[in-house]
Amino acid sequence: MIMARNRRLILSSPSEVWRLLCDGHRYGEWVTGTQQVLAADPHWPEVGARLKVRVGAGPLTLDDTCVVRACEPPHRLELEAKADPFGAARIAMRLLPWGEHTLFTLDWHPLRGPGTRMHGLPVDYVVAVRNGMMLTKLARIAVREHAVGTAQKTGVQVWDVP
Q1: Which CATH class is domain 4-149?
Q2: Is this model's pTM higher than 0.70 or not?
Q3: How is the chain split into domains, by residue range?
């Protein structure tokens, strides 16, 4: 059963959004709670590749490892995020073409640990809010990079893109 699902229309093509997902070192830019990307396997996001990150708020941090469990470029990426002693969760990302844009779906559910016993509205709500913040950040980055790429192709200078 899915614990939290978020959807976001991103005003960039699936290939542009996929390019962001393929750069493991950029996850800290859009994954809420990530303080630092510690390491990304050079073959990210192939199945089995790992991404090590430091997550938390302020001085309360822990090191997390994400492992790619499924990868179908440029439409599907599934990760297993392990944050011991808290367990692990599955994060499934899907990118669907929506005209020239991308409908991005993010599903999250616990696999092991305390989260498997804490299913319910309060936890679902907190996770959905966090994931919504992530998708907003991802969308802003993708739109900004789309605008810069378009400007470079047309020779127009971009001063400030939100």
Answers
A1: alpha beta
A2: yes
A3: 4-149
